[in-house]
Amino acid sequence: MTVKILHFSDSHLDVPATKFGPRRFERKQDFLQTFDTVVEYALEKQPDILLHTGDLFNGINPRNPARAHVMTAFRKLHSKGIRIFIISGNHDVPRARQTGISPLVEYANAGFITLFEDWEKIGSETINVDGLDVEISGKSYDPTIPASSTVDPLTQVSIPGKGDINILLVHYNVEGFRGTFPTSPTIRLKSIPKNLTYLAVGHIHEHQQQTVGNTTICMPGSTEHVSFAEEKHKKGFVWHEANAEGVQQSKFISVKTRPMRTIPVTIPADADINNLLFREINKLRNPQLIVRFLLKGVMTIKSAEKYRRSEVIRKGIAQCFSVEIVDNLEYISPELTTPAGELALKPPITEYRDYLTAAIEQEKNPVRKAQLQKALEQGIALLEEKGGW
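^ that's the sequence the OP posted. Answer follows.
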C-alpha cells in the first residue's frame, strides 16, 4: 500500500496588485483560480494527505473575500476526509507574537486543518493510513532569525521521526537548490534527519526535486507567477505516492496561469520611442498577456520631446492585460560637450527603484526590510501613474 500525498505551496492569495490599476481585482482572481485548480484536483483524486508549505496568503491581514474563499475550500476538502497540514511562510507569519496571529489560525480553530504555527520548535502529528503510521511534522518560518544569517533552521530542533513514513514541512532555502533568497536562512543537506522520508519545502517559487540519502526533497514552487523573475517557470503542484521504503512515484501537475513576457527594446539615439513601442504592441494582441518592455539604449532631448509614456501604457492595455515599462536608458544631451558617461542621468522611477533596492539589500532588520519593500512597490506604482519615467 502507498500513501497518496498532494503538496502545493506559495499561493500568495490576496496580493496587492496595485500596479495593475483597475485590473488589480482580476489579477487577484488569478491567484484564487490557481488555488481552486489544486483544490478541485484534490477533491477529485482524494489524496490521503494534503500539504501546504507556507505563504498561502501574501500577508497576515488578507481581505475577507480571500479568507472566506479559503474557508469554503478547506471545508469541502475536510468533508471528503482529506487531512490538511499547513505551516506559515515569511509572508503570512506575524513578525512577533505580540503583533498578531497567523490568518491560518481560524482554519485550525474550525477543525479543517492542522497548523504547525510555532516557529521555535517542531510540531508533530501521527496518523494511520492503511496500516502505515505517517508522522507529519512542521515548523513555520522564523521571522526572528536575522537577515543573511548563517543559522541553519534545523540544527536546533528535534524531529521525532517515529513513523513508517516521516514528513517535515519547512519554508526556507535548501542548500544546492536554485533561486534561493540571499537574505533567508538556508537548510544544509547535512542537517536533514536520516530517517526523514519527505522534506516538503516552500519559499522557492520554482519547482525542484532531488533525493538525498533516503529523503526526497521537493519544492513544488508557487501556483501563480508572482513576478517577472518567474515568467518562464511552469506553475503547479506535486503528487507523490510513498510507502515505508520511501517516495515511490512523483508527478508534477501544471496549472494554467496568466502568461508573462519580457520584451527587450533597444532605443537608438533620437528615435521615436512611442512608435517603436507601438509596433511591438501591435505584434502582441493578447488580452491575457502581462507585458514588460525593457528599454535599453539612449534618450536624447529630441527623443524625450516625443516620448509619451502614458500613451504607450494606454495602447498597451487596450491590447494586453497589462503593460509595464522598465527604463534602463542612458540620458544624454548631444548639445553638450561633456563625455556621455558623465552625463548619464536616470529618470525618477529608476532612481527611486535603485535607491530602495540598495537599501533593502543592506537592511538587516526583517521588519524594516518588509517596510522598505512595500514602499518600493507602492512608490513605483505611484510614479508610473504620474508618469515619473
